[in-house]
C-alpha cells in the first residue's frame, strides 16, 4: 500500500504517455531545424500547462531539475539584491542549507523564525525580523513536507513587500494538492517539483514574477537556455511529462482534494482510536488534505515501519533519510527526541483507495502493538 506521496507520487498515465512520446522523438529544443522546432513545441506546451495550473504567464516559468535547484536558484537570486535572508526552522533542507551557505560569510545575515507547537510561524516574529535590519528575501514554505502544515502566505507577502523584501515560497508539497493562483498570491518566486503531483522525477520549475527587480544569478551557466536563468540542453521528455501531469491535475484537483481529505480523516480517526496515546502532529485545520504525521509513543517509527513492510510510509523527509538525528521539524515544534523518533508520516494522493487505507490501518495497529510489546512499553 503506497502512502508516501510526499516523497514521490506514482507517475500519472498522462505524464507517462507524454514522456514516452517525447523520448521516441529526436531533436534539441534549441536547434533551428524541424525536429528542433518540434522539441521546442513540446516544451512550450508544457510551459503553458504548468502556468495554467499556477495561474501565471508561461513566460514566468523556468524549468529546472527539481525543487531543490529551484530553491537554490531563488535564494541565490534574491540574496544578490543586498540584505539578509529570513526563513523558518522547519523549512526543507533545500532551503535551510542554501540559506546557510549563502550567508555563511556575513554575520547575522540569516534569521530563522521559530514555530509554535502546531508548526506555525508567528507573524509578530516576522515583523520584528523585518524591522531589525535590511532584508533581501523572505522564504517560507507553502506546506510542510513532514506534517503538511500550511502557511498563510498573504500576510507574510504583505509584510515583506512593505519592508522592501522579495518573497519566495517552496510550494513543492502544495502544488497539485491544493489550488494555487498566482494572480492572487503575490509571491515573487515559487518552487515546485513535478514528481510530487504525478510527473516524472528530475524536473521542476521556478516561477519568477515578471517585472520584479531581480538580476540573473544562474546556478548553471552555458548556452543561455531558459532566458539565461539555466544553461543546458532542455530535458524535453521530463518537461513534457511535467506539463501533462499539471494538465491532469488542473482538471482533477477539485474531486481529488475532497476524496483525499476524506481518506486522510478516516486514517487518522482509526489510528488515534485504535492505538493508545497516539496523536497527530501539526495544526489540525491548516494541513494538506493528504498528509498525516502520527506519533506512536513507545513505538519507534523505524521499528513500526519494519514491522509492516506491506505499507510504504515514512519516518520523515525522504531527503533526510538515514540522518542520525530525529526530525528537525518535530523538534522545532517542541517534541522531544523520543516523540520525534516515534512519528510516522503517511502521505496520500490521487491513486490512494479506501482499500489502501483499510490495509494501512490494520497493519499499523498491529505493528505498533507488536513493537510496544517487544520493547515492553507501558502504554
Automatic annotation (TrEMBL):
Query: What residue intervals traverse the membrane?
Result: none
SUPFAM superfamilies from the UniProt entry: PLP-dependent transferases
Q: Which residues form the Aminotransferase class V domain?
A: 1-358
Q: What is its EC number?
A: 2.8.1.7
- What reaction gets catalysed by this protein? (sulfur carrier)-H + L-cysteine = (sulfur carrier)-SH + L-alanine
- Keyword Metal-binding: yes or no? yes
Q: Which GO terms describe its molecular function?
A: cysteine desulfurase activity; iron-sulfur cluster binding; metal ion binding
Q: Which cofactor does it need?
A: pyridoxal 5'-phosphate
EC class of this enzyme? transferase
Record keywords, A-Z: Iron, Iron-sulfur, Metal-binding, Pyridoxal phosphate, Transferase
User: One Pfam family for this entry, by name?
Assistant: Aminotran_5
- InterPro entries in alphabetical order: Aminotrans_V_dom (IPR000192), Aminotrans_V_PyrdxlP_BS (IPR020578), Cysteine_dSase (IPR016454), PyrdxlP-dep_Trfase (IPR015424), PyrdxlP-dep_Trfase_major (IPR015421), PyrdxlP-dep_Trfase_small (IPR015422)
For this chain, the family text in UniProt reads: Belongs to the class-V pyridoxal-phosphate-dependent aminotransferase family. NifS/IscS subfamily.
Designated name of the protein: cysteine desulfurase
Organism equals Nocardiopsis metallicus
The beginning of the lineage is: Bacteria, Bacillati, Actinomycetota, Actinomycetes, Streptosporangiales
Amino acid at each position: 500500500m503506497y502512502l508516501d506521496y510526499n516523497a514521490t507520487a506514482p507517475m500519472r498515465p498522462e505524464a507517462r504517455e507524454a514522456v514516452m512520446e517525447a523520448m521516441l522523438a529526436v531533436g534539441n529544443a534549441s536547434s533551428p531545424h524541424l525536429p528542433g522546432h518540434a522539441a521546442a513545441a513540446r516544451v512550450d506546451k508544457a510551459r503553458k500547462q504548468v502556468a495554467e495550473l499556477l495561474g501565471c504567464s508561461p513566460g514566468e516559468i523556468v524549468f529546472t531539475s527539481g525543487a531543490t535547484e529551484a530553491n537554490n536558484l531563488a535564494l541565490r537570486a534574491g540574496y544578490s539584491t543586498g540584505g539578509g535572508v529570513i526563513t523558518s526552522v522547519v523549512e526543507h533542507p533545500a532551503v535551510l542549507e542554501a540559506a546557510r551557505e549563502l550567508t555563511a560569510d556575513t554575520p547575522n545575515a540569516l534569521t530563522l523564525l521559530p514555530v509554535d507547537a502546531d508548526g506555525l510561524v508567528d507573524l509578530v516574529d516576522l515583523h520584528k525580523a523585518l524591522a531589525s535590519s535590511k532584508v533581501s528575501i523572505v522564504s517560507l514554505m507553502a506546506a510542510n513536507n513532514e506534517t503538511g502544515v500550511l502557511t498563510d502566505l498573504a500576510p507574510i507577502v504583505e509584510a515583506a513587500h512593505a519592508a522592501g523584501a522579495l518573497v519566495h515560497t517552496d510550494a513543492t508539497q502544495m502544488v497539485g494538492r491544493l489550488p494555487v493562483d498566482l494572480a492572487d498570491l503575490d509571491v515573487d518566486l515559487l518552487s515546485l517539483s513535478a514528481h510530487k503531483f504525478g510527473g516524472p522525477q528530475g524536473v521542476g520549475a521556478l516561477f519568477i514574477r515578471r517585472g520584479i527587480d531581480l538580476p540573473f544569478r544562474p546556478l548553471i551557466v552555458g548556452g543561455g537556455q531558459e532566458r539565461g536563468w539555466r544553461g543546458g540542453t532542455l530535458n524535453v521528455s521530463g518537461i513534457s511529462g511535467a506539463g501533462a501531469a499539471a494538465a491532469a491535475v488542473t482538471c482533477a484537483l477539485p474531486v481529488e482534494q475532497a476524496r483525499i481529505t476524506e481518506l486522510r480523516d478516516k486514517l487518522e480517526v482509526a489510528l488515534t482510536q485504535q492505538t493508545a496515546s497516539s496523536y497527530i502532529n501539526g495544526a489540525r485545520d491548516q494541513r494538506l488534505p493528504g498528509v498525516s504525521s502520527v506519533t506512536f509513543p513507545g513505538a519507534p517509527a523505524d521499528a513500526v515501519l519494519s514491522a509492516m513492510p506491506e505499507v510504504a510510509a515514512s519516518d520523515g523527509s525522504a531527503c533526510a533519510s538515514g540522518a542520525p538525528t530525529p526530525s528537525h521539524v518535530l523538534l522545532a515544534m517542541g517534541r522531544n527526541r523520543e516523540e520525534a523518533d516515534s512519528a510516522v508520516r503517511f502521505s496520500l494522493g490521487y491513486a490512494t483507495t479506501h482499500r489502501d487505507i483499510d490495509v494501512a490501518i490494520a497493519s499499523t495497529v498491529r505493528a505498533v502493538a507488536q513493537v510496544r510489546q517487544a520493547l515492553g512499553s507501558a502504554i
